[in-house]
């Protein structure tokens, strides 16, 4: 089993960073390798270089049962187990949580 790293390394230009970023600051390549919903209230994000972050996702103080997460450009779509309509969030909101090193993402 491979351990997680504290570094993100762009596979295209080799820029390294300790801050979880979705895109490389130098070449613009995507640094996110996978984004999964764990079937509970958590999402796990895996990045180039081996870094992995798990975030608890809440809305109005209540945990959400997540079925899927999709990140496409400026939008993050969270699909709930009990609802067919995805919750749309800004990718910037997710980045702020990652940048601050928080483990809880409180949706607006």
Helix content: under 10%
Which CATH class is shown?
Alpha Beta
Please state the oligomeric state of the protein chains shown.
Answer: single chain
Number of domains: 1
Low-confidence stretches: none
Question: What is the distance, rounded to the nearest whole angstrom, between the alpha carbons of the first and last residues?
Answer: 36 Å
The whole-number mean of residue pLDDT values reads 92
Describe the main β-sheet briefly.
Answer: 5 strands, mixed
The portion of residues forming beta strands comes to 35-45%
Using only C-alpha atoms, the radius of gyration works out to: 14 Å
* Structure summary, number of beta strands: 10
- Compressed to H and E, one letter per element, the order equals EEEEEEEEEHE
CATH level-two architecture = 2-Layer Sandwich
What's the arrangement of secondary structure elements?
Blueprint lengths: L7 E2 L6 E2 L14 E6 L4 E6 L4 E8 L2 E2 L2 E7 L2 E6 L6 E4 H10 L3 E4 L1
Parallel strand pairs: 5-10
Antiparallel strand pairs: 1-2, 3-4, 4-5, 5-6, 7-8, 8-9
Tell me what the structure shows.
With 108 residues, the chain is mainly beta. It has one domain (8-107): NE0471 N-terminal domain-like. It has 1 helix and 10 strands; from the N terminus they run E-E-E-E-E-E-E-E-E-H-E. The protein has one helix spanning 91-100; strands spanning 8-9, 16-17, 32-37, 42-47, 52-59, 62-63, 66-72, 75-80, 87-90, 104-107. Strands 3, 4, 5, 6 and 10 form a 5-stranded mixed beta sheet that branches. The chain is elongated. It starts with 7 loop residues before the first strand and ends with a strand.
């Amino acid at each position: 089993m491979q351990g997680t790293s504290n570094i993100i390394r762009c596979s295209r230009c080799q820029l390294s960073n300790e801050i979880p970023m979705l895109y490389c600051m130098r070449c613009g390549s995507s640094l996110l390798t996978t984004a999964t919903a764990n079937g509970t209230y958590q999402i796990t994000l895996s990045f180039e270089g081996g870094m992995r972050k798990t975030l608890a996702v809440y809305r109005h103080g209540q945990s959400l049962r997540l079925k899927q997460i999709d990140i496409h450009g400026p939008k993050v779509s969270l699909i709930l187990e009990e609802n067919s309509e995805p919750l749309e969030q800004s990718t910037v909101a997710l980045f702020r949580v990652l940048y601050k090193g928080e483990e809880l993402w409180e949706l607006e």
